[in-house]
């Protein structure tokens, strides 16, 4: 399919006039084959490149100058005023969980130090490393009556701890005023201790978080009283963490924005001859300067980018190569995840590769438009896949479109074919189409988005421009 100037401008939405011109011209190059090879197409891209080169000379950098000793210091201020989740929000989460458990006739919910325990009680597996000795968060719904005799439900929270670690467990920054800390001795079964502490009615249901290790699930099942079911937490419980609050979105926006700014800053430091390992070191320094923790880094040059998660080599960057950087980190526990494929300033990558970049960019934008409250997640995946299929490169888009993101980089739900999950307000996803032609080129673009109160998808990176504008403007 060829796009007219008007159609291409519509596809770009709010992008710059120069970018709209680029996409309109790219329509000339559409063909049933992924390698175009038309003189007219090359001429169009040569004209495009000339305009970019002129812009690079006239406006050499859009970044503040920094001291070479601290090249990324300017990133530190971007999220400096973003505060963690307040205690009151933890209490709201605990209350919602208790009410959900009560509605499902469940006696308790059990989690290890993990994203879920972090969500409900600020207990991460960084603060408490997992070992063969279980420490368990146990939340039970307690039915009570208020002064007027109205039935209420409140959370009762216990933290099962090894006895010799009890003091350390009580020092964890848990936002719970009245938590109990049942202890188990080395010679005791922690699971029998857990059930003794819960004082559960026989025949109840115990929901176990999906991240709990199998040997703990087995121990709970064997120790459970007669008639008590130990089972995985259902979707009603999982959904509590999937849908993000305004405060969570504030943190995630800043984390994703500063990740984009870090990639842009690193691009300014890359030159022909740089090694992938040097790019990773720069990216690590930039993200750390931005205040992010738990960093993840993929830096790939040239044909290595055709392997989505890395090549195991340390390739040198060619003057006209594409660079793929996929990276992120956590801010107050919440993750960022951004991918940019870009060219060096004043470079001239193969026009056919630029065409693939444009195809991926268009697919990313179509997916964002398909993502609305009430839509099926598979429909969003299909929206991106259909764009790429138009250029006969569908076989090179080899992974799902995206994943949920929050306290974990990858969490449910997922934007993937075959899924019937329904998108809801507060959901957050990555939008990351890609084309990977092994031995030749790889292109992936990734921005995360959320579903706002009106049911629309909005990029978490919108505060710093959202999508990449072109291969020369990531």
TrEMBL record:
Cofactor(s) demanded:
Mn(2+)
| UniProt KW Magnesium keyword | no
Q: InterPro entries this protein is in?
A: Creatin/AminoP/Spt16_N, Creatinase/aminopeptidase-like, Pept_M24, Peptidase_M24B, Peptidase_M24B_aminopep-P_CS
Please give the Pfam families that the UniProt record associates with this protein: Peptidase_M24
The alphabetized UniProt keywords are:
Hydrolase, Manganese, Metal-binding
SUPFAM superfamilies in the record: Creatinase/aminopeptidase (SSF55920), Creatinase/prolidase N-terminal domain (SSF53092)
Q: Which domain of life is it from?
A: Eukaryota
Q: Please state every residue range assigned to the domain named Peptidase M24.
A: 250-453
Molecular-function annotations in GO = hydrolase activity; metal ion binding
Q: Does the keyword Nucleotide-binding apply?
A: no
Protein family according to the UniProt entry: Belongs to the peptidase M24B family.
Full protein name = Peptidase M24 domain-containing protein
Lineage from the top down? Eukaryota, Fungi, Dikarya, Basidiomycota, Agaricomycotina
């Amino acid at each position: 399919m060829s796009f007219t100037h008007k159609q291409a401008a519509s596809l770009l939405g709010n992008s710059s006039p120069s970018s709209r011109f680029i996409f309109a011209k790219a329509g000339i190059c559409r063909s049933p084959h992924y390698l175009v090879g038309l003189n007219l197409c090359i001429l169009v891209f040569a004209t495009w490149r000339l305009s970019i080169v002129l812009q690079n000379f006239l406006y050499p950098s859009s970044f503040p100058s920094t001291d070479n000793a601290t090249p990324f210091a300017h990133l530190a201020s971007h999220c400096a005023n973003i505060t963690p989740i307040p205690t009151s929000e933890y209490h709201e989460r605990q209350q919602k969980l208790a009410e959900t458990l009560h509605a499902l006739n469940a006696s308790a919910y059990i989690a290890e130090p993990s994203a879920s325990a972090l969500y409900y009680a600020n207990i991460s597996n960084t603060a408490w490393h997992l070992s063969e000795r279980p420490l368990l968060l146990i939340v039970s719904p307690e039915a009570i009556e208020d002064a007027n005799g109205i039935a209420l439900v409140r959370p009762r929270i216990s933290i099962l701890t090894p006895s010799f670690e009890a003091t350390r467990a009580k020092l964890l920054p848990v936002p719970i005023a009245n938590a109990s800390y049942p202890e188990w001795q080395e010679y005791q079964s922690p699971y029998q201790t857990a059930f003794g502490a819960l004082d559960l009615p026989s025949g109840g249901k115990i929901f176990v978080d999906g991240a709990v290790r199998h040997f703990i699930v087995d121990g709970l099942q064997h120790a459970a009283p007669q008639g008590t079911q130990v089972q995985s937490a259902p979707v009603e419980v999982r959904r509590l963490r999937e849908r993000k609050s305004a405060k969570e979105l504030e943190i995630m926006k800043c984390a994703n924005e500063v990740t984009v700014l870090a990639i842009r800053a690193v691009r300014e430091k890359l030159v022909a001859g740089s090694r992938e390992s040097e790019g990773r070191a720069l990216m690590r320094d930039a993200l750390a300067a931005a205040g992010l923790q738990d960093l993840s880094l993929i830096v790939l040059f040239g044909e290595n980018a055709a392997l989505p998660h890395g090549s195991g080599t340390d390739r040198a960057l060619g003057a006209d190569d594409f660079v793929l950087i996929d990276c992120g980190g956590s801010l107050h526990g919440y993750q960022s995840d951004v991918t940019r494929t870009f060219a060096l300033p004043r470079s001239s990558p193969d026009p056919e590769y630029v065409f693939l970049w444009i195809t991926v960019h268009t697919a990313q934008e179509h997916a964002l438009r398909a993502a609305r409250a009430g839509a099926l997640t598979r429909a969003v995946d299909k929206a991106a896949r259909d764009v790429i299929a138009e250029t006969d490169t569908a076989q090179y888009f080899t992974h799902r479109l995206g994943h949920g993101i929050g306290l974990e980089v990858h969490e449910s739900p997922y934007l993937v074919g075959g899924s019937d999950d329904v998108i809801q307000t507060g959901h957050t996803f990555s939008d990351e189409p890609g084309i990977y032609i092994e031995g030749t080129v790889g292109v992936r673009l990734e921005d995360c988005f959320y579903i706002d109160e009106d049911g629309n998808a909005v990029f978490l990176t919108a505060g710093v421009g959202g999508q990449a504008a072109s291969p020369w403007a990531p």
